[in-house]
């Protein structure tokens, strides 16, 4: 099978499909809005299509997986910040491209091989290490999957793996890439730290009155500030409003005659009298 796949992958049509497969990751990852339309099809590669329901299910599954990793339910804004929507588009586009290539190459998977792959999945094995039919149904039910849908999807994944393994067989990664991945995966950090708690600190006693008084005397200047008062006033004097040139002597005389009673002071006399009962 691998020999046939290698030969098929060398054809011009297969190479074009593989190039489109790689390009789909970049295109869908840049902007999913470029392919928005009113139909139910989200992704179309040849005869392979992905419906909006399939996309919604894959998106929800990806969000649930990320939420379990972070230990909290991601909001729509957080999922968008992580680029989950673009990731799901890229995965679905790549899967559709591989499915189309598999269909063009007439690749398939036997029922026995498919059953063996499902039975070998650790997620469906019991404590004894054997396939558990009840555990299989329970896991799919908890994931919101029907058995037929899961089996169909598992078959597609297995066929896709055949294509990927065949095209990647014999590929040797550059040493720089291997060293970078190895350094990333197995990199360690040594941390030296000192832990200080209240138990390492001698308790500070409450100061007595003498200590507080002495401290206040040395620092009281820092708490003093001059006292200020603010006020508003209008300065107005007779000279500011009086116009001497506009008052005549007759007006002064007339005003005096009218007010002269207020300027008069009645005359007074002091009398001393001695009284005797008889002369």
UniProtKB/TrEMBL annotation:
Protein name, per record: Peptidylprolyl isomerase
GO CC annotation, single: plasma membrane
UniProt GO molecular function: isomerase activity
Species this chain originates from: Agrobacterium albertimagni
InterPro entries: PpiD_chaperone (IPR052029), Trigger_fact/SurA_dom_sf (IPR027304)
Pfam families to which the protein is assigned, alphabetical: SurA_N_3
Subcellular location: Cell membrane
The entry's keywords: Cell membrane, Chaperone, Isomerase, Membrane
């Amino acid at each position: 099978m691998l020999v046939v796949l290698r030969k098929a992958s060398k054809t011009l049509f297969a190479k074009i499909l593989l190039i489109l497969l790689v390009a789909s990751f970049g295109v869908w990852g840049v902007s999913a809005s470029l392919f928005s339309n009113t139909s139910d099809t989200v992704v179309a590669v040849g005869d392979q299509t992905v419906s909006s329901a399939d996309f919604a299910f894959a998106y929800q599954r990806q969000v649930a997986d990320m939420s379990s990793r972070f230990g909290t339910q991601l909001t729509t804004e957080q999922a968008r910040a992580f680029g989950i929507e673009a990731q799901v588009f890229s995965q679905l586009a790549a899967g559709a491209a591989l499915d189309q290539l598999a269909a063009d190459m007439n690749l398939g998977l036997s029922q026995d091989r498919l059953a063996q792959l499902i039975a070998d999945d650790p997620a469906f094995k019991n404590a004894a290490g054997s396939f558990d039919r009840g555990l299989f149904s329970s896991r799919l039910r908890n994931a919101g999957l029907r058995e037929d849908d899961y089996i169909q999807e598992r078959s597609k994944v297995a066929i896709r793996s055949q294509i990927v393994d065949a095209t990647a067989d014999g590929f040797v990664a550059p040493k720089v890439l291997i060293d970078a991945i190895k350094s990333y995966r197995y990199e360690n950090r040594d941390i030296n730290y000192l832990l200080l708690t209240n138990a390492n600190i001698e308790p500070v006693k409450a100061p007595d009155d003498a200590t507080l008084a002495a401290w206040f005397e040395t620092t009281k200047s820092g708490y003093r500030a001059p006292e200020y008062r603010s006020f508003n006033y209008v300065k107005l004097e007779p000279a500011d409003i009086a116009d001497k040139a506009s008052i005549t002597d007759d007006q002064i005389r007339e005003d005096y005659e009218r007010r002269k009673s207020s300027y008069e002071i009645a005359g007074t006399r002091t009398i001393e009298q001695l009284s005797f009962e008889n002369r």
